[in-house]
Amino acid sequence: MSTHAIVLRTAGTNCEHETKLALERGGATAELLHLHKLCAEPARLDAARILVLPGGFSYGDDIAAGRVLGHELRTFLGRELAAFVARGGFVLGVCNGFQALVDTGLLEGPDSDGRPKGGEKRSIALSANESGHYECRWVTLRNEPSKCAWLEPGMLWPVPVAHGEGRLVFKDAATLERLRKNGQVALRYVTASGGEARYPELPNGSTDAIAGLCDATGRVLGLMPHPERNLSPWNHPRWTRMGPREAGEGLEFYRRLVEAAGSAAR
Amino acid sequence: MSVPAPASSAAHPLPMAWRLEVFRREGLDDPDGKRALAAVRELGVASLHSLRHGRGYLISPDVDEASVARIASELVCDPVLETCRITRPGAAPVVTPAARRVLVARKPGVMDPAALTVERAIERAQLARCSDGTRARVLTFSAWECFGEPTRAELELVATKILANDVIDEVRLGDEGVHFVLPGNVAVRDAGSIPLCKASDAELERISKDGHLSLTLVEMRAIRDHYVAAGREPTVAELETLAQTWSEHCKHKTFAGVIDYDGERIENLLKTTIKAATLELAKPWCVSVFHDNAGVIEFEPGWHVCFKVETHNHPSAIDPYGGSGTGVGGVIRDILGVGLGAKPIANTDAFFVGPLDLPEKDLPKGCMHPRRILRGVVAGVRDYGNRMGIPTVNGGVWVDPRYVGNPLVYAGTVGLMPAHCASKEVKPGDIIVVAGGRTGRDGIHGATFSSAELHEDSVVVSSSAVQIGNAITEKRVLDALLAARDLGLYRAVTDCGAGGLSSAVGEMGADCGARVELEKVPLKYPGLSPAEIWISEAQERMVFAVQPENLAALLATFEAEDCEATAIGTFTDTGKLELSYAGVSVGSLDMHFLHEGTPKWLRKATRPVVRNDDPACPPCADANATLLALLKSPNIASKEWIVRMYDHEVQAMGVTKPLCGERDDGPGDGAVLQPLPHSRKGIALGCGANPGYGLLDPWAMASAAIDEALRNAVAVGGDPERTAILDNFSWANCARPAELGKLVEASRACYATAKAFGTPFISGKDSLNNEFRVGDEVITIPPTLFVSALAIVPDVARAVTMDLKTAGNPVYVVGMTHAEFGGSHYFALGKVEGGRVPRPDLVLAPRTLKALHRAIAAGTVRACHDLSEGGLAVAAAEAAFAGERGLELDLKALPCGTIGAHHDTDATRLFSESCTRFLVEVDAQRAGEFESALAGLDCARVGRVTAERRLVVRGTRGNVVIDASLDALRAAHQGGFQG
Fold it and tell me: What digits encode the pLDDT tens for the residues A159-176?
């Protein structure tokens, strides 16, 4: 049986089509599902192994990026999402999806009554870029050794970012230390050769150059860059300078996600 | 630490609303504050040393305290980054000691998208309700806390020049009385009918002027005569409908009228030039041209692409941010409203502004500084385009002093549609449905305003014609519309643009008739008169013709996307446009008179004097220094700061990017997209314009603009034989015969050039009253034709970028260099006036483009860059630093026409701006193949790519005339205005 993925969308979501394509090319079956429908029928999660919160400007990013979507996910689907992860489901948040994911608290794990530690209880935030503005450019990521086992550690790969609020900020040093120790730092911005990134290779000033975080199970992953924008051989801004290419590096990311979610099911 | 503001600080009453102010935590940086401080420094105010920005929210007073606390902690305040101050209704807020406060709130009635989002979020999550059970209302504002010792005058300057725009904002300085007013509760009833039948000419003119109708005396007389014959007076709604429908903006009366051109009678300039070219070319792949909201051409079997470019000049002059944002929103709706609707896949934009380094003292009264205008329009495109999820991939910025009072803003959108969606029809009995945003007093008289000249008081009198867009409402419309289209739930659609419902319903029902019940139109606030509802230009609305049996399904589809849709009437077979409000008729117009009754304009035009002189091209004492100066000049310098703020990657179709090369900093010629993942076919987008050419020779200007747009598209792999073009004219007041004469010449150039290249026009737009009056002086813009090109790319894998690739490869120049310096950057730099304006050779140029395309499609070309502003030297420098490769060129080898002896030959070869030229790096193994493809055309090997990181150019006498490091060239290119 193929691995099924739900791409959740709402007003302002705008990367859902390329995300669905990425999942399908990665080997999954995928459907676009409106948040209202999932709120009305949360049991639709039962059929899926993967839930993706794609990029966009949910509700205009009014108040703050991903805030209203995060609030709605917490309010209407908090328990269901926690249960989905607990029974082995994979959650991916990309860009605006990552911003909403941080707000839900899923990355920080459930509190005592089973709800994710979101909203006012969270200690992770995505802040306005240090540059003070939205920025679209290609960067290099390095997969870090982390609980997110399906990301091959040490691999460097190119991917575009496009956001105004992508700087990870932690409530205190202890929070960052805990995430590091727990193996939750999944992706970092590096230079093309793997060195320490500074602006613009580090496009947003993110603390510790972190681009993506996972939860303690390794099944929930959020990242600011957009792997689904690097699927074809011709997406890379410098492909005309390279030899023949079969696919963009982002395809491998989705292939491995689908594979991991599929094998976890068996 | 915070303290309550002194109660006496409120000159206005403190708002009777809960007030939340959210600031960054102490110790965290404040990016908004930093950006504002940079602008304060630029303004020369040294007494402020820092600013902090707070997001303010006002919430209905009868919400209970616990709910307000929840809204603060769960919704609006980030627990890691921010703190929230809560103030009770009517109380003085808590403020930071020593802070000078500036509060900025949108004027009542101006769109406040964030407030709508917060209201909706509160409602959906049931965070709060008013004590009477109604929905909690929200308004937002900005609270700036300024630190330092500014005088009140300085603070006022900062507030009005940086923190707020008077046209849309209310500002409070040291006054906590921010308003909590919901607009519109002033009920205005229409005065019934307007006494026209017995009006004298003077009275007719007064009625037109007082009513902001922008109708001429001849048109007013035609309307009067129509009503005399009908034996009654027109209603307000009828007269407004006529004014909107007959406006220059909607009707293109100059282009479609009669022109007396020095005694030669031209019937319909548009039809006899631009449309004639398309008609005569008769390309079988043109699907729909000129009559719909955008031009449509075939792409792949089963798929069409469409393209539209709009001007949005006057609103952008008054409120750059809102003006350009609603410009983008408007052109996106054109694409949603073409045929049965297309999916927008790319945006383009172009700005023409005054000098960015203009001293404040030289700014004419009533003008905004060009820097502020440019930043504002860029931010508007960024915020609207990015939120819509449409990549902004191509465009340009041009600077000229004559745009200072009247900047030009162009916004374009490309769409993709299934082939069966290209046409539409309306049938009597179809239900009229309006969907999307609600209707308010926004933008009333936008169509007639855009047809009038700007003047120093425009800011004061025209503010109701300026709007802020709400991109997320439009995104909901987009999602719902495409879903309903794919379910086949409607028969026709169009957008609500200029003229609002009056134009949209009037056009859709032109061939049958329509009946509208205006009280059914959903309003933002009560109190609008029927005529206001009818002509409001509130954004983000579309109108549908829905088969009655599909109505329920259509409404459900929109509801599923959280998008309001409402039946407001029916299309009929009466040939009449019938309007009622709560059962009472407020107008009944004959469709034929509405659409065909416009008296033809008769205007005089005089042939422009083209000086056609040929002043000497002066020798270049230091070509290195000249090249660096050109690279830094505003039209050539890097626009990276703009490109980076646009999401040019969303939808993941990008093949060649706006910035190219080893460090992603070379200016790409055109954008290539791969619209369908299963097909390797692509589209290439290019654009061309040159303000410097227009005043000297409007014919050459137009022809060269087309050539440039085509060069851009062909350079990246577009097929010139499958290319469609768009015309966007921005002109000064064409009531003056001299201006209209230039328009005639430019239009004729469009005809000749499009015919020669075999590239049909598929859509266009004109804005013909671009000037700015201050006192007795009128600043007119140079004649500006902006041309956009859309070319089919046979195989995206063969697309080419402009960055040099491999040391050792030969480099060619394709195309002939002449001494053409009129309007050139080299002459501008040397302050030489006049000169021959470049124009393409209409015999050779089309053959050159075809041959070059064949060579590119065959895969022989490694890099290709078109020669435009600054000529060969600039193109060579850009290709070299973008590729991080050296380049050696020999000017002796350059294909040149006869260069008069009075011109310096090396300077001509380096800096002439002759058309149809390219710098091409060819794969060393395939040089023979490339040369065969270009055989018989002007093409010569002029150098090679090297591994040295230098550009070295030898002059005709064998001496080195340019020797510059890539670092120096790159630094110069990035040395211009960077936002």
Answer: 999 999 999 999 999 999
Q: Does B34 touch chain A (CB under 8 A)?
A: yes
Rounded to an integer, the average pLDDT of A212-235 is 97
Are the Cβ atoms of A226 and B649 closer than 8 angstroms? yes
A130 is catalytic: no
Residue type (1 letter), B403: Y
How many beta-carbon pairs below 8 A join chains A and B? 180
Q: Which amino acid is at A156?
A: L
The CATH H-level (homologous superfamily) assignment of domain B3-173 is Phosphoribosylformylglycinamidine synthase subunit PurS (3.30.1280.10)
A214 catalytically annotated:
no
Q: Which residue of A131, A170, A229 is in closest CB contact with B649?
A: A229
Chain B nearest CA to A244, separation (Å): 9
Task: Give the pLDDT of residue B7.
Answer: 47
Would the CB atoms of B80 and A125 count as touching at under 8 Å?
A: yes
What DSSP assignment string belongs to A33-70?
EEHHHHHH-GGGGGG-SEEEE--B-GGGG-SSTTHHHH
The Cβ of residue A36 has, within 10 Å, a number of other Cβ atoms equal to 18
What does each C-alpha distance from B620 to B827, B831, B837 come to in angstroms?
11, 13, 20
Query: Would you give the DSSP letter of residue B798?
Result: G
* The pLDDT value given to residue B331: 97
Mutate to test the interface with B, among A130, A234, A253 (most CBs of B within 10 A): A234
Under a CB-based contact definition with an 8 Å cutoff, are residues B785 and B897 in contact? no
Q: Which domain holds residue A211?
A: 4-265
* pLDDT for the residue B811: 98
Residues of chain B positioned with their CB less than 8 A from the CB of A61: 387
- Residue B460: its pLDDT value, please? 45
Strand spans (E) along B584-722:
584-590, 602-605, 654-656, 659-660, 666-667, 671-673, 682-688
Strand ranges (DSSP E) for B696-825? 723-730, 761-767, 771-774, 777-780, 784-793, 810-814
Cα of B663 to nearest chain A Cα, Å:
9
Q: B436: which DSSP letter?
A: E
- A262 and chain B in contact, CB less than 8 A: no
Q: Cβ–Cβ of A136/B124 closer than 8 Å? A: no
Cis amide linkage into residue A200, ω under 30° from 0: yes
What's the pLDDT at B183?
A: 64
Cross-chain Cβ contact A56/B389 below 8 Å: yes
Q: What's A110's DSSP letter?
A: B
Domain with A200 in it: what CATH number? 3.40.50.880
Q: Which residues of chain B have a pLDDT value below 50?
A: 1, 7-8, 459-463
B109 or A55, which is more confident?
A55
The distance of A120 to chain B (nearest Cα, Å) reads 5
Active-site residue, A95 included: yes
Determine the pLDDT at residue B173: 94
Residue ranges per structural domain of chain B? 3-173, 184-234
The confidence score (pLDDT) of residue B109 equals 80
A232 contact residues in B (CB cutoff 8 A): 652, 674, 677
Q: Are B143 and B56 in contact (CB under 8 A)?
A: yes
Question: Can you give the pLDDT at residue B662?
Answer: 97
Summarised one tens digit per residue, pLDDT across range A99-143 is 999 999 999 987 777 677 777 889 999 999 999 999 999 999 999
Q: Note the pLDDT of residue A265.
A: 62
Distance CA B207, CA B214 (A): 10
Q: Tell me B937's DSSP state.
A: S
Q: Give how many domains chain A has, as a whole number.
A: 1
Amino acid at B37: L
Q: In this structure, what DSSP letter does residue B783 have? A: P
Alpha helices by DSSP H, listed for A58-111, are 67-86, 96-104
> Residue B834 has which token pair?
């006049």
Supply the pLDDT for residue B459.
Answer: 47
